Amino acid sequence: MYDFTDIEEVDYDRTIELSPSHPTQADESEREWSRMSDLFMTAGYREGITAGKESALQSGFDTGFAEVGAPIGRHVGNLRGLAAGVLAFLNSSSHHCSQLCESTQLHDEIRSIAERLSCIQFVNIEPPDTEALTHALEHREGEGDLQVQTDLQTARKDLPELVKLKESLEVVYKKLDLYIVFDVPSCLT
């Protein structure tokens, strides 16, 4: 006969835990690991995208500022400063009285140049950002095309005025026997 005294009693609760319908501690840990891994991967992906965008934006800003913004700003600022300097010179009491008639005409001319220079805005003389406009055309339909065309037509609308003012300022300087070299940044030519 059989001796059943050595057989352990069956723990039915434990058997139920090991059955496929009830997950084990290992299954629960695996699911938690998978969930955490997905969360961290998603967060890492988002952070990477954000860092990439910021890096590209900063690089684009740095290039645009160095090649376009600063040279144009410096040029317009120099012209404004030169006009203001001549205006101050003509307003000074040390100006020769024999040239009073011509100085009044010069005074009006340089004041007009200074006022017109103060109306020049960077956005109206900068070269068009063709890369951004091309991108806009690729991702817009219908009315976007019209907006891009309008942007291209209005780009640099004040540039001819800036060129005229520079030339007028050169004429005034020559009349006053002042000599200065007017460097024009390559992005304006």
Automatic annotation (TrEMBL):
Every copy of the Essential protein Yae1 N-terminal domain together lies at 44-83
A Pfam family that this protein carries is Yae1_N
The compartments listed are: Cytoplasm; Nucleus
Q: Which UniProt keywords apply?
A: Cytoplasm, Nucleus
Q: Which domain of life is it from?
A: Eukaryota
Q: Name one GO cellular component term.
A: nucleus
Q: Per the record's keyword annotation, is Nucleus included, yes or no?
A: yes
Task: Supply the InterPro entries for this chain.
Answer: Essential_protein_Yae1_N, Yae1-like
Which family is this protein grouped under?
Answer: Belongs to the YAE1 family.
Name of the protein described by the UniProt record: Protein YAE1
